[in-house]
């Protein structure tokens, strides 16, 4: 017998915060969106990156996010023949500012002695510093290689977006250096880490990236 998915809970309040929490307030939902900010993921990828989540709960959360329009489910053709999940255009517009605010809130709660730093945390150290005002006139694609894991995304006139086209800049770095460059305990440590980060692209494109993401 198949398990019956429980109905989504609702606060049943005519309030924008309550309505938002009806979608985003369930356990694991924001962490799934965090993973998809790093690019398209298979179901099995999400299971690995979210240890502790039950398989039926992951399936339920993905369905809820798909129904809400925040993610897309794509069936890739043979020989790959797999299902991948990614942020939708609406997801790219709405999710990064939410994660940016929550990350800012949670930053002071982190244990500075906790190691190692994951590749995703290194990517978040870049992308969650995005300044839409500085990016108002910018359209460009970017690639970030962190400890052997690749992330791709774009900026489209003041908004983060899914990767498209040839990257204008490729950033290569360790997760530790990216996090230290952003949150290092001293200016000297931040500058030293930043010098170890490699930026490959035309000088103007690199300058624009560094301005928009405060690098």
What's the average pLDDT? 90
Global morphology: globular
Compute the gyration radius: what is it? 18 Å
- Largest sheet, strands/sense/barrel: 5 strands, mixed
User: Numbering strands along the chain, what is their spatial order in the largest sheet?
Assistant: 6-5-4-7-8
Q: Estimate what percentage of residues fall within beta strands.
A: 15-25%
Helix/strand/pairing category: alpha+beta
* Separation, N- and C-terminal Cα atoms: 54 Å
Number of helices: 9
Spell the H/E element sequence: HHEHHEEHHEEEEHHEH
Protein name: DNA-binding HxlR family transcriptional regulator
GO molecular function: DNA binding
Domain HTH hxlR-type: 15-114
Pfam families: HxlR
What is the strand and helix layout of this fold?
Blueprint: H1 16-24, H2 29-37, E1 41-42, H3 43-49, H4 55-68, E2 71-75, E3 83-87, H5 89-106, H6 119-127, E4 139-146, E5 149-156, E6 160-161, E7 169-173, H7 175-183, H8 187-195, E8 198-201, H9 203-212
Parallel strand pairs: 4-7
Antiparallel strand pairs: 1-3, 2-3, 4-5, 5-6, 7-8
């Amino acid at each position: 017998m198949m398990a019956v998915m429980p109905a989504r809970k609702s606060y049943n309040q005519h309030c924008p915060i309550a309505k938002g929490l009806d979608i985003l307030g369930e356990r694991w939902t924001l962490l799934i969106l965090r993973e998809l900010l790093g690019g398209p993921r298979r179901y099995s990828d999400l299971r690995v990156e979210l240890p502790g989540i039950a398989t039926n709960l992951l399936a339920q959360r993905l369905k809820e996010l798909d129904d809400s329009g925040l993610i897309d489910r794509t069936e890739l053709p043979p020989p790959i023949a797999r299902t991948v999940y990614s942020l939708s255009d609406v997801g790219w517009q709405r999710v990064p500012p939410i994660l940016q605010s929550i990350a800012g809130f949670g930053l002071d709660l982190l244990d500075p002695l906790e190691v190692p730093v994951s590749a995703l945390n290194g990517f978040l150290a870049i992308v969650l510093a995005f300044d839409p005002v500085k990016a108002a006139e910018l359209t460009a694609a970017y690639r970030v290689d962190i400890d052997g894991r690749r992330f791709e995304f774009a900026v489209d006139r003041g908004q983060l977006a899914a990767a498209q086209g040839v990257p204008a800049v490729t950033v290569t770095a360790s997760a530790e250096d990216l996090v230290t460059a952003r949150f290092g305990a001293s200016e000297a440590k931040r500058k030293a880490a930043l010098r170890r980060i490699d930026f490959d692209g035309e000088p103007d494109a690199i300058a624009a990236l560094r301005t928009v993401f405060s690098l």
